[in-house]
Design a protein that fits this description.
Structural class: mainly alpha
Number of strands: 0
Largest sheet: none
Radius of gyration: 14 Å
Number of helices: 5
Order of helices and strands: HHHHH
Distance between the termini: 36 Å
Length: 77
């Protein structure tokens, strides 16, 4: 996907889409939203580890959801 579409315009549009997406539990399905964010970040930053991708996505959830997930993770919150 990157080799076919990775021109400057595509990168700019993909970065804007990934950065502006914030999880809204009323309109977004969690799995669909998460996978879309993961695919976008993986395409933009292929060298980024899965842990870093997950942390970036988790920061976009915010509030009580972010806190609840961090407290149930391997590392204490």
């Amino acid at each position: 996907m990157i080799t076919k579409w990775a021109n400057n315009s595509w990168k700019f549009n993909m970065e804007n889409a990934v950065e502006s997406a914030i999880f809204n539990s009323e309109k977004d399905k969690p799995l669909t939203w998460f996978l879309k964010q993961k695919d976008g970040l993986s395409a933009l930053h292929p060298d980024m580890s899965d842990t870093m991708i997950n942390m970036k996505i988790l920061r976009k959830c915010g509030g009580e959801l972010e806190h609840a997930i961090k407290c149930r993770g391997v590392e204490p919150c």
